[in-house]
Amino acid sequence: MGKIEFDFNQIADLPAFYRHFAERFALGEGFGANLDALWDVVTGDISLPVEIEFLNLNARSKRRFGAIILLFEEAEEELEGNLRFNIRETSSTATHQRG
Fold it and tell me: Superkingdom, according to UniProt (predicted)?
């Protein structure tokens, strides 16, 4: 299982997240950079299995990126073990981890 990390010390806002995501998964300019496009790519276009980890999220960042966090949590359930999603706060402790 490959692992892709997103360091939120390097990601200031939603457009930056979508840029990082498109770069990490080599999506090109056709990626729609919105929640619907993200869902479609995560559940149908990226190579699975994969582990996605969000690093350095504080409470403010969790609020700012809440919709994306929920999307990955739902995708993790939908993909039944082919996607693992974790969040590591600034203190380096895992705050979300499923089997």
Answer: Bacteria
